[in-house]
Amino acid sequence: MKTDNYTEELPEGYTLAKHVSAKDRKTTIIYTLLSFVPAIILFVAAFLTVYYTGGIAAAGNDTFRIVSFVVTCLVYLLYIVLHELVHGIVYKICTGRKLKFGLSMTYAFCGVPDVYVYRKAAVCAIIMPFAVFSVVFIGLTVGMYFVNPLLFIEAAIMLGLHLGGCVGDLHLTLLFAKNYRNSSTLMRDLGPEQFIYVKD
């Protein structure tokens, strides 16, 4: 079966052009290191903003700090689930097929392994969590600036962790934007691995 968004079988005349795997040790190391960069940068920026505006003293007592830290950790775990669900929702809308979700020590994933997805649907599914949650976390960070200095710093860290968590998604999106622009390009997404196919 073939639709505008996917095909069940790889058509004749297609060859494998790129294989991206989060299981690859080198890729995992690079993604992991890069994922912490935005969080560190935004933490430093937020802390310095609070420090130089005299907000440190208004950050709250020890109980407030502990509770806010625990809540932030729980929100981040929820975000990981929601991030993958957004991938899944787009894949489900585009293909209607069974999804595959998973979690390892270094990454979470969502894929649609039983079909080959055309470029437009693939890019939409890949980039949607970045688009949705960037707006959410930027809004949250700006809002927390006017609420509490500690919550502002924690929101900035969450924004950074979100951006870092999108490293793999952004890498794939850039590959499609730079190297695989033809609408006939297909991708098979197993979750932790993506295979990109192009016409000969």
Secondary-structure blueprint:
Blueprint: E1 6-7, E2 14-21, H1 25-52, H2 62-95, E3 100-103, E4 108-118, H3 119-145, H4 149-165, H5 167-178, E5 186-189, E6 193-199
Antiparallel strand pairs: 1-4, 2-6, 3-4, 4-5, 5-6
Account of the protein in words:
With 200 residues, the chain is of the alpha+beta class. Strands 1, 2, 3, 4, 5 and 6 form a 6-stranded antiparallel beta sheet that branches. The chain contains 5 helices and 6 strands, in the order E-E-H-H-E-E-H-H-H-E-E. A hairpin with a 3-residue loop joins strand 5 and strand 6. It has helices spanning 25-52, 62-95, 119-145, 149-165, 167-178, and strands spanning 6-7, 14-21, 100-103, 108-118, 186-189, 193-199.
Tally of alpha and pi helices: 5
Assembly type of the chains comes to: single chain
- Gross geometry: elongated
How would you sum up the major sheet?
A: 6 strands, antiparallel
Mean pLDDT: 92
Strands, total number: 6
What string gives the helices and strands in order? EEHHEEHHHEE
**Euclidean distance between termini CA atoms:** 21 Å
Q: What portion of residues is helical?
A: 55-70%
User: Which parts are unreliable, with pLDDT below 50 for 5 consecutive residues or more?
Assistant: none
Strand fraction equals: 15-25%
